[in-house]
Each structure stands twice: as C-alpha cells, then as structure tokens.
C-alpha cells in the first residue's frame, strides 16, 4: 500500500494535467480543470493579452488557442509549489514549442520556441484542485548576466 499523496504532489499533478490537456487540445479536460464559478471568479492572462475574467471568457480563449494551434508542447522547468490551506500557487517556466497550420502541403507548419513565466493559482474543491487563475508573461531577457554586461557597456 502506498502512502497518501501530499497536497503539494496533488497540486503538481493538477498543474501537469492542465498543460497536458492543452497539448492534446482537449477542451473538455481543460474546462474540467478550471474552477467552477460558484467558488469565485476565475481570471487568465495569456502573454500579450488583456486580463480575461469569468469562466466563459477564459474558456473561450482556450478554445480559440486550441483551434488555431496545430501543435503545442510545454516543457515545464523551475516548477515551485506553495500550498496554504485551500489555496496553492505554482510558478514555472513554460518552454513552449508550437506550430501553426502547414503550408505548401507540409504535414506541420514551422515550429516556434518561446519562453513564458507562469503563475497558476489553484483552489481546493471537493473535486480536487482546480485552476483559479493563470498568468503568463513572455521572457524578454535571456539572463541577469546579459543585463549586467549591457549596463557596463557605455
């Protein structure tokens, strides 16, 4: 018999399930992972988008993204989980590989890599941990070392 999972492990599993559902383009799974409105309003910020508020608006955004993305894969790094009572915060770096529609009869369009730092807030419900808020911001700087080099050069 295995030991019971910790809240941290359960949140990590919910976070992974969220990204895997988006990768598969499984709208029903994505919708099931978002918090129901009876527990409070949800919000989402995709990189370069305005704040989306409310379950309907947030889920419409995922439907649009999945309908217009031929291929997407997330490699999550720097994953950190903090749990306090019925709320959990996950921060991570989304190393994203994606591609749009194919051109000239190719099977897949050109692939593009992108780095996004994300904060996912989860809330515990009787049905498990659900996404309450997602905020993704593009990484525009490579590292702090490059910033220091640029500041030193006059």
Oligomer: single chain
**Estimated share of beta-strand residues:** 35-45%
Overall radius of gyration: 18 Å
What summary fits the major beta sheet? Answer: 6 strands, mixed
Describe what you observe in this structure.
- The structure is a single chain.
- By secondary structure, the protein is of the alpha+beta class.
- The mean pLDDT is 88.
- It has a single domain (7-152), classed as Nuclear Transport Factor 2, Chain: A (Roll).
- The chain has a six-stranded mixed β-sheet.
- Strand 3 and strand 4 form a beta hairpin.
- The protein is built from four helices and six strands, in the order H-H-E-E-H-E-E-E-E-H.
Secondary structure layout plus pairing:
Elements: H1 7-24, H2 27-33, E1 43-45, E2 52-53, H3 55-67, E3 71-84, E4 87-99, E5 111-125, E6 128-138, H4 144-152
Parallel strand pairs: 1-6
Antiparallel strand pairs: 1-2, 3-4, 4-5, 5-6
Helix pairs in contact: 1-2
What key phrases describe this protein's structure?
6-stranded mixed β-sheet; Nuclear Transport Factor 2, Chain: A; 38% strand; alpha+beta
Produce a short descriptive summary.
This is SnoaL-like domain-containing protein. With 154 residues, the chain is of the alpha+beta class. It is 31% helix and 38% strand.
């Amino acid at each position: 018999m295995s030991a019971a999972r910790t809240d941290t492990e359960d949140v990590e599993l919910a976070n992974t399930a969220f990204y895997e559902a988006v990768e598969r383009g499984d709208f029903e799974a994505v919708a099931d992972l978002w918090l129901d409105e009876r527990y409070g309003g949800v919000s989402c910020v995709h990189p370069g988008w305005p704040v989306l508020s409310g379950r309907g608006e947030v889920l419409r955004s995922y439907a649009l993204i999945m309908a217009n993305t031929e291929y997407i894969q997330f490699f999550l790094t720097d994953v950190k989980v903090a749990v306090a009572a019925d709320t959990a915060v996950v921060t991570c770096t989304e190393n994203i590989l994606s591609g749009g529609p194919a051109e000239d009869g190719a099977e897949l369009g050109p692939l593009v890599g992108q780095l996004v730092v994300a904060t996912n807030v989860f809330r515990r419900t009787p049905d498990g941990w659900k996404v309450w808020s997602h905020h993704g911001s593009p990484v525009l700087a490579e590292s702090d070392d490059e910033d220091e080099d640029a500041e030193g050069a006059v």
